[in-house]
Amino acid sequence: MSAFEDPSIKSAVGELEAAEAFFSNDDNAFDDPPTQTRPKQSMSGGFGSELPRSDGVPPVAFTSGTLDETVGETLWRDASHVGGKLLLVLMPYTSGSETIEHLRDWDLWGPLVVSLTLATSLATGSSYANAAVVFSLVFVVLWVGAIVVSVNAQLLGGKLSLPQSVCVLGYSAFPVCAARLTIGVVETMVGVSRLVRFVTAAVALVWATRASVLFVEEVIPSKRRALAVYPVFLFYSWLSWMVVVV
Predict the structure, then answer these.
(1) Who wins on pLDDT, 40 or 9?
(2) What is the pLDDT of residue 47?
(3) Whole-angstrom Cα distance, residue 184 to residue 192?
(4) pLDDT tens digits for 78-123?
(5) According to the UniProt record, where is the region Disordered (predicted)?
């Protein structure tokens, strides 16, 4: 029997012919299965374009924020926020919940302005030799004292964060700062006695403490409020005493 008549050889030849016919067909050669293509996302939107979320939440467009504001608009907006919070301190008989709601959006610009103004006014009212010491002492004690009182409130179960507490205490020192500025203006015109200084500082102390107590009543449990109010009273008492003696 000839080798070409062997059934196994005939089968191999048939498979080779079938393979040759398959690869000779351009429509079938190395055709990849169709794949789904994702639509390209336009990047022309910049910060305002929507980005996909992996947690299933619908995409939210970023707002431009303050990037398109001028410097003057930004300063005016920040000054308006600071002024609004100072008004809350000047009206201490508003509800504590309203005060807390406004001060949850905390900032440290207002407390910084209050501390610088108070320290500068006290330093200018003292002798030239002690001006730097008075400024440093008042500025450091105001900030360190606010942080210590805030930490104490946190340990007593306060519901606000440390920056929010420092923000409230810094803004609440504004009556003391206003008292010092008032004494300085009146003193340059007609002079101020020690008794007038004491009465003005006492009113500022009550005013500042009352503004802070509104905050304490809302964030400290009722059984621990006295432990939170006492350091606040000491804090503003020291600042008010500096208004009297300097």
Answers:
(1) 9
(2) 35
(3) 9
(4) 787 777 777 777 775 555 566 666 666 778 888 999 999 999 999 9
(5) 23-63
Question: 95 by DSSP, 3-state: which?
Answer: coil
Asked if residue 13 is part of any domain, the answer here is: no
Q: How many Å apart are CA 161 and CA 132, to the nearest integer?
A: 32
19 found inside a domain: no
pTM of the entire predicted model:
0.65
Nearest alpha-carbon partner for 212 in 112, 108, 99, 114: 99
Evaluate whether residue 224 is within a structural domain.
yes
Q: Are 138 and 242 in contact (CB under 8 A)?
A: yes
Q: Are 215 and 228 in contact (CB under 8 A)?
A: no
- Other CB atoms within 10 Å distance of the CB of residue 52: 8
- Tokens read off for 220: 């400290």
At residue 219 the predicted structure's pLDDT band, cuts being 50, 70 and 90, is confident
Q: How many CB atoms lie within 10 A of CB 199?
A: 13
Q: How many residues does the chain have?
A: 246
Tell me the two tokens of residue 132: 């730097």
Which runs of consecutive H residues, i.e. helices, occur in the chain? 7-24, 71-90, 96-103, 109-125, 131-155, 162-172, 174-189, 194-219, 225-245
Q: Which pLDDT score is estimated for 79?
A: 80
Task: Tell me whether residue 236 is in a domain.
Answer: yes
- What total of structural domains would you count in the chain? 1
